[in-house]
Amino acid sequence: STPRRLFLNHSNPRMTPTLPQDLDSSQTRSLAVSGAVDVPLHEFVNLVVLDLEGWENLTDDALRQFCTSKMFLLKYLSVRNTQVSKLPHEIKNLLSLEVLDISYTQISELPLEVFKLGSLQEMLLRGTRIRQLPKQIVGLKARLRSIILDGEGMVNSNGTSIKLPHEIQHLRELRQLETIDLSEQPASFVNALGSLRFLLFLAITWSFHQSSDRSYREAFLSSMEKW
Question: How far is 94 from 208, CA to CA, in rounded Å?
Fold first, then answer.
């Protein structure tokens, strides 16, 4: 029988493992790959879950080829803790994608195609090189429920926090926002956060000056009342 869930791991550099010849990869729904194993991703055409956390052989080109394969059923994609440096424009083909985890990668920006993924509900961006999310994030307002920017050290791999645009206020379905740095944001941005009416969890950092500034305090209290 063909496994519906498959986990492949390899850590011995002296051996090169291969997939069983009789494996029908089209029947696999969940695939997890780590270590130094070689896997022809494009052959797994009906995946729902693809977890590549810690996969040493993952390249930008391999990820692009996978997205080109038009994985229409894929809901979960993680390239966490890999050497990937960019997401391909072909990610637009992942029409059913609900969770995208690019944490602890070399990625410095998100292609605008990400913000056209109408099913996307959760974005995990910890430990990346991203400096700012674009205003096009408003394109995810229908479904996006969680944005995890950073929670460990509060900064990205460049030593700076990820900045959010004012358009964040239009993400009306957002439930979780962690962790945002308000130290360089105006009071109007703090006030705009009050539009996130369904927010259940919020983690912030801000400066000592802001905590003692009346305009910031009033903006934050106003947002809290709306929540």
Answer: 43
